[in-house]
What does this fold into?
Amino acid sequence: MKPLSVVVRTGCDMFAWFLVVFGAYVIIHGDVTPGGGFQGGAIVATFVALLLVAHGGEKVLGWIKLDIYNGFLTTGLLLFLLLAFSGMGNAFLYNFLAVPEAVAQAGGAHGIIPPSGTIALMDIAVGLEVAGGLTLIIMYMFKGSIMTNISEIGGETGHDNW
Amino acid sequence: MKKTIFIMAALIIAGLMFGALDTIHPFGQPGDFAMDDYYIHHALEERSSENIVTSIVFDYRGFDTIGEAAVLFTAVCSILALFREGARKQ
Amino acid sequence: MIIGNLPFLTVGILFLIGLLAILREKNMIKIAIGITIIESAVNMFLIVLGYRLGGDIPVHFLKGEVDAMVLPTPQALTLTAIVIALATSALMLSVIMLLFKHYGTLNVDEIRRLRG
It folds into this structure.
């Protein structure tokens, strides 16, 4: 894919990193506002999609190392299973970190873990997994589409001649 | 000939489906909601989380979420396996 | 009649459009589009089932002064269904790409005639 014109590239450079910050906000505030793990992970995955459309395929393949997203995917799934097996004293998937609201209002909550317990931690794990998984899908399908490139009869429009 | 059979079959299927959609319940008045009323009234006291949908997805019904994470992982693994560049035999 | 329940009528019409696209089209990508239309219609049907008149959003932080909320369980089931629809459509498109690379055409009748 060829890079698009200079207007599109400037707009992409301005907004690309804000997508990551907004996606992290939606993931972390999963138990207060609407959203959660899956929605925030999909927002973080549009970062690579925007770069791929604006800057062209060859440059982006040089910038991105795919091992980081592989690490996200496996870390997310393993953390989720670890949290599921940790409450095995009572039951599978037992919420062993939750504090009821009456106790939390009187000041009995933990320091850094929110009073909803494993709900907030599972949000972060699933958000990591979905972000890594969707990015890997996009990059590997793009690499596969280079294989089936027939010659451009009409050519693509919208590029500059740079 | 084939076209008339197809149109008649499509009309019969459409009629049956719209008839079934009509007899579920009127829009806005669900039938029985005892389980959802328990979730609405007790999610804030027990779990101290203000988002009821997230507490259902991850705590009250967390087993389905494990299956869904596994489905996503399997899809990513199979796409990686389809687009691999293997060694070509000479 | 069903004209009174307008959301259920919309779900039925979307489902029929997707079904017609699967049965009558010859291009492989159009068939894949029809499958995703059917999956979207089913997700919408799940959400429409759980509405209560006079209800509000099931989040304690954002609701107004009303006392009733809509049912939250179908919304939780729809989240899972959306992710599964994404996984199946990604795999479908990858298989279509490999078929095009092997046969050179996207027409279903041509592929049936060639047979590898």
